[in-house]
Amino acid sequence: MLTLYGTELSSRLLLGTAQYPSPAILMDAVKASETKIVTVSLRREMAGGKSGDKFWSLIQSLGVHVLPNTAGCHTVKEAVLTAQMARDIFATDWIKLEVIGNHDTLQPDVFALVDAARILTTDGFKVFPYMTDDLVVAERLLEAGCEVLMPWCAPIGSALGPLNLHALRALRGHFPDVPMIVDAGLGRPSHAATVMELGFDAILLNTAVAKAADPVAMAAAFAKAVDAGHMACHAGMLEPRDVAVPSTPVIGKAVFS
Ligand SMILES: CC(=O)[C@@H](O)[C@H](O)COP(=O)(O)O
């Protein structure tokens, strides 16, 4: 089981709800992924009117936890206000905190992120901060009261997969007891398996499933990859070695002439 802020979850895959070809495909993909948490952007809900209401009813019908996010926010003020509105609208104190610092890479502004996280944890929020893979930022976010971290593996929507395995490995190694969810930039199930093999606790993704030719099948494939990587990590993986070692016994082999 995965435990996040005291909530036990039977899945290690978190799914975004944007960009699916249709609401029906989104619903089927969520089911196929077996996720227990979906992220929802407050901005989308605020689109309001009929489509906003419909979307919210659909999300509620999924029977999973909702993790609202502050996608699209660029300042501390904007992110804090968005989080407070999300708490009222979605009736949850969970917030995925995004404070974007660069338009091209959608890289988080880690300084603003730490400031916003401190304000929100003091206000009782359970903050899931979307961060870079930086050790010092991780330390500051923990000091600010975050109990879960969400390092990126590549820019949002890029599908590049883990760009800096060294940094991810270092993060995992320095904070072995902090739940960490690798978020954004995954393109294929093998990327998910790779980061789970490093010992991360979960994966959050959206684009690679929503934009797949068959989002439902891709959601199922990611679910299997996440579980496979997690199982492998705890099964004791063989370390790579430079020499060849026969995998079949050489002693007592039959000699044919
Ligand atoms: C849904 C969500 O929260 C995204 O902002 C998230 O970071 C996913 O990134 P990808 O779309 O690259 O999977």
From TrEMBL:
Where do the catalytic residues lie? K96 (schiff-base intermediate with dxp)
Tell me which GO cellular component terms the UniProt record holds.
cytoplasm
Q: Does the keyword Transferase apply?
A: yes
- Which cellular compartments is it found in? Cytoplasm
The GO terms this record gives for MF are: thiazole synthase activity
Q: Which InterPro entries match?
A: Aldolase_TIM (IPR013785), Thiazole_synthase_ThiG (IPR033983), ThiG (IPR008867)
Which amino acid positions bind 1-deoxy-D-xylulose 5-phosphate, per UniProt? Answer: G157, A184, G185, N206, T207
Q: Which UniProt keywords apply?
A: Cytoplasm, Schiff base, Thiamine biosynthesis, Transferase
Q: Which Pfam families match?
A: ThiG
Identify the enzyme class: transferase
Q: Which reaction does it catalyse?
A: [ThiS sulfur-carrier protein]-C-terminal-Gly-aminoethanethioate + 2-iminoacetate + 1-deoxy-D-xylulose 5-phosphate = [ThiS sulfur-carrier protein]-C-terminal Gly-Gly + 2-[(2R,5Z)-2-carboxy-4-methylthiazol-5(2H)-ylidene]ethyl phosphate + 2 H2O + H(+)
Q: Which domain of life is it from?
A: Bacteria
- The Thiazole synthase ThiG domain extends over 4-249
Biological-process GO terms, alphabetical: thiamine diphosphate biosynthetic process
Q: What is its EC number?
A: 2.8.1.10
Which pathway or pathways does this protein act in? Cofactor biosynthesis; thiamine diphosphate biosynthesis
Assembly, per entry: Homotetramer. Forms heterodimers with either ThiH or ThiS.
State what this protein does: Catalyzes the rearrangement of 1-deoxy-D-xylulose 5-phosphate (DXP) to produce the thiazole phosphate moiety of thiamine. Sulfur is provided by the thiocarboxylate moiety of the carrier protein ThiS. In vitro, sulfur can be provided by H(2)S.
Q: Which family does it belong to?
A: Belongs to the ThiG family.
Return the protein name.
Answer: Thiazole synthase
Q: What is the lineage of its organism?
A: Bacteria, Pseudomonadati, Pseudomonadota, Alphaproteobacteria, Hyphomicrobiales
Query: Which gene is this protein's source?
Result: thiG
